[in-house]
Specification:
Blueprint lengths: L2 H27 L21 H9 L2 H9 L4 E4 L3 E3 L5 E3 L2 E6 L9 E3 H22 L4 E8 L22 E9 L4 E3 H4 L4 H14 L5 E3 L11 E4 L5 E2 L1
Parallel strand pairs: 9-11
Antiparallel strand pairs: 1-4, 2-3, 4-5, 6-7, 7-8, 7-10, 9-10
C-alpha cells in the first residue's frame, strides 16, 4: 500500500476516534449530576447510580465532606478530636454531632462526617419512601443502639478494629412510627409481611449511600440491628 493511502487511513481512524471521545465527553457532561461520577456530591439530590462513587470521595476527603454537609439542610456541629486506647488506636477526627436531620434519633448521634452525610440521604431517599410504601404510619424516630465504641470487631480481644472504634459506623435497632408502634429489626426481619419488606428496603437502600451494610442476613451477631458504616470494605448483606 502506498504511503499516502496509509496516511489517509490513519487520519480517518484518528478523526473517528476523536469524534467518539468528543461525543462521550458531551454525553457525560449532559448527565444529571446524580448519574455522573464526576459531579460533586450534593446531599439534597436524589440517589442515582453515581451517588455511591460521589460518597466514596468524601469518605477520604474531610474538606469535601464538611463542604457537603454545609451546603445541605442537615444541621451538625463539630466535636473535638479524640484519641484513646492502649496504642491510641481508637478515637475520631473531623467528627460531628448530628443536631437536626429528617428524623430524630433515640440517642445523640456523634459520628464521622461521612456517616452523618450518608444518614441524611438515607433517611430522606430510603427510609421515608419505604415507610410510605410498606407501613401504615410515617417514621417518627430512628432507634439507635450506638455509634462510637473503642473495640475490635465483635468485641474480640484480638483482630481487626471495628469501624465503631473511629465513630465511622452506626447500629440501627428499629423505627418508631408516628402512631406509636415500633418496627424492630429483631422482631420484624423474619416475620414476613409489611414490616419485613420495609426493613429489607431500608437495608437495600442503605447500600446506595453507605460502604458497609450488615443485617440479620449476614450473621447472628446482627440479628437485632442494621450495621451501617463508611469504612474501607464494600459489603451489602
Amino acid at each position: 500500500m502506498q504511503w499516502w493511502k496509509r496516511a489517509a487511513i490513519t487520519a480517518a481512524i484518528l478523526i473517528v476516534a476523536a469524534l467518539a471521545v468528543w461525543r462521550a465527553v458531551e454525553w457525560v457532561r449532559n448527565l444529571p449530576p446524580e448519574q455522573s461520577p464526576f459531579a460533586t456530591l450534593d446531599l439534597e439530590r436524589p440517589i442515582g447510580w453515581a451517588t455511591g462513587m460521589q460518597f466514596d470521595r468524601i469518605r477520604t476527603d474531610p474538606l469535601a465532606c464538611t463542604a457537603a454537609l454545609s451546603a445541605s439542610e442537615i444541621e451538625t456541629s463539630p466535636i473535638e478530636d479524640r484519641v484513646e486506647g492502649d496504642a491510641g488506636q481508637c478515637g475520631f477526627a473531623n467528627a460531628v454531632s448530628l443536631e437536626r436531620s429528617l428524623f430524630p434519633y433515640s440517642a445523640p448521634v456523634r459520628s464521622s462526617c461521612p456517616v452523618a452525610a450518608a444518614l441524611y440521604v438515607w433517611e430522606r431517599e430510603v427510609v421515608a419512601t419505604a415507610a410510605a410504601q410498606w407501613l401504615e404510619s410515617p417514621v417518627a424516630r430512628i432507634e439507635m443502639i450506638g455509634v462510637y465504641s473503642c473495640r475490635n470487631v465483635y468485641g474480640r480481644s484480638e483482630g481487626r478494629l471495628s469501624e465503631h472504634a473511629t465513630a465511622n459506623s452506626i447500629d440501627i435497632a428499629g423505627f418508631r412510627l408516628e402512631n406509636g408502634r415500633v418496627v424492630r429489626v429483631l422482631d420484624g426481619w423474619a416475620e414476613g409481611g409489611p414490616d419485613a419488606a420495609f426493613l429489607r428496603a431500608v437495608r437495600d437502600g442503605a447500600c446506595e449511600t453507605f460502604q458497609g451494610v450488615l443485617s440479620p442476613d449476614y450473621n447472628r451477631a446482627h440479628a437485632d440491628h442494621l450495621h451501617l458504616d463508611m469504612g474501607a470494605y464494600d459489603i451489602c448483606s
